[in-house]
Amino acid sequence: MMNILLANLIILPAGVLCFLPVKANLKHSFPKTIAIMLPALFALIVLSSFLTWQFSLSGNDLLLPVLLISYLAYHFSLRLPFVKTLGVFTVVVALLAILSNFSACIDAFRNPDAGPESFTLTFSLFQLGITVIAILLLAYPFIKHGGFIIIQPIFAAVWMSLILFSVILIIANIALMPVEYYLFREQQFLANVLLILFGQLVVWGLMLILLYFAISGMLTINKMKEKNSFLEMQESQFRSMQKYIKASEKTRHDFRHNILTLAELYNEGKTDEIGKYLNQYVDSLPKNEYVIFCGNTALNALLNYYVHVTSLNEIDFKLHISIPEHLPVSDVDLCSMVGNIMENAVIACQSADKKTIELTVLSEKRMQLYIVAVNSFNGVARQRDGRYVSTKADGSGVGLASVAATAENYGGVAQFSHEGKHFYSNIAIPLNK
Q1: What is the pLDDT of residue 179?
Q2: How confident is the model at residue 116 (pLDDT cuts 50, 70, 90)?
Q3: What is the dihedral of CA 88, 94, 96, 102, to 10 degrees?
Q4: Rg (CA), the chain
Q5: pLDDT by residue (tens digit) across 395-417?
Q6: What percent of the chain shows pLDDT beyond 90?
Q7: Of 310, 369, 364, nearest in space to 334 by CA
Q8: Torsion of CA 216, 218, 221, 222, to 10 degrees
């Protein structure tokens, strides 16, 4: 019974590894989550160990129900869609399957007369020890890089591929688990099995590394596309300014002639003609289509663009902005957050009875950056796994997820809510970090 209990204790460090990349997405506080999960996992370990001992079961007989119960407890403790929680869970289980087979091979070599149902002290201690060492080595990359991957608005297909690959590794290791320990008396046989397991471990690591770089590449491409889009907006606004400047130069050039004409009309006492002439002159003055909202050139171009878009869509757009020229937040990230919020707001307004958008971008004493938006919509909010999804045809909701991910990258928070027929977007980012 004690050896079985020691063997099943790997569930605890495995649970720690599962929670490391998602610690920012807990439904409850960290102490409360620990207070709930730790006793529950320990109870599961004791119960499964007792049943295995009492009915002389093998290590795989209770594997499926234990994994299912563990995953459900894990999933419902997080504010994440199931593809992400299942992705992390299967990745960790795949690692445990490989390490468990490593332990079984060592046990078979040391105790060739035993078997996988024996749960020898060698197997239990080696499995627990190698699992703890692996988790200590993986803790930092799982927290830093795993946390980075978790908050990214990645399509479900990417996570499904990760889940499928992990499940294949798990099944392969179940099939590879030593059944006849006496075969491991031959060192060549043992070496071949260990080589296969080591290869699986390398593949497991490469899978996560490739995933990380693939996602980083996707994000870089998306940022470049956004940057190009902002540059196109700036170019468009620059052309409008050039047009206005040229028209203003002509107006200044003709100003002397207009004054002389007005003086002549005045001398002749033709006051009515002066009024008509002034009205015609005012109508001929060039109109500046570019408004300076703030000192940030990129954001200024974006806001001018949405002033034009909201005007075309007959949306009442109110803007309040007060930020310095330079912020710790990059222009691309700032415009990405504001642009995604405005894009969703414009689309949502299409189905609203009264089309209104109010946007506030404020830097409070250079300590906090606030981006707050309120827009009208038809009152029907689409949500999936506790998150809002887009009203666009694809319904992916990547825009709002991208805003949240960007805010979290700067140590900030993004919250979205609705009440009645108004949708609220609130972003707060600390600027003193």
Answers
A1: 66
A2: low
A3: -160
A4: 32
A5: 445 678 788 888 888 889 899 99
A6: 33
A7: 369
A8: -110
105 and 133 in contact (C-beta within 8 Å)?
A: no
- For residue 47, pLDDT over 70 is answered with yes
Q: Does domain 297-430 have CATH number 3.30.565.10?
A: yes
Residue 51: CB atoms within 10 A of its CB come to: 15
For 316, list phi and psi in degrees, rounded to 5.
-75, 105
Q: Which tops the pLDDT comparison, 156 or 248? A: 156
* Dihedral sign, Cα of residue 396, residue 399, residue 403, residue 406: positive
The structure tokens listed for 178 are 């030593």
Provide the CB-side half-sphere exposure for 351 (13 A, CA): 13
Give the 3-state DSSP-derived string for the chain, with helices as H, strands as E and coil as C. CHHHHHHHCCHHHHHHHHHHHHHHHECCCHHHHHHHHHHHHHHHHHHHHHHHHHCCCCCCCCHHHHHHHHHHHHHCCECCCHHHHHHHHHHHHHHHHHHHHHHHHHHHHHCCCCCCCCCCHHHHHHHHHHHHHHHHHHHHHHHHHHHHHHCCCCCHHHHHHHHHHHHHHHHHHHHHCCCCHHHHHCHHHHHHHHHHHHHHHHHHHHHHHHHHHHHHHHHHHHHHHHHHHHHHHHHHHHHHHHHHHHHHHHHHHHHHHHHHHHHHHHHCCCHHHHHHHHHHHHHHCCCCCCCCCCCCHHHHHHHHHHHHHHHHCCCEEEEEEECCCCCCCCHHHHHHHHHHHHHHHHHHHCCCCCCEEEEEEEEECCCEEEEEEEEECCCCCCEECCEECCCCCCCCCHHHHHHHHHHHHCCCEEEEEEECCEEEEEEEEECCC
Rounded alpha-carbon distances, angstroms, from residue 392 to 120, 340, 343, 347, 351 = 58, 13, 10, 8, 12
First vs last C-alpha separation in the chain:
52
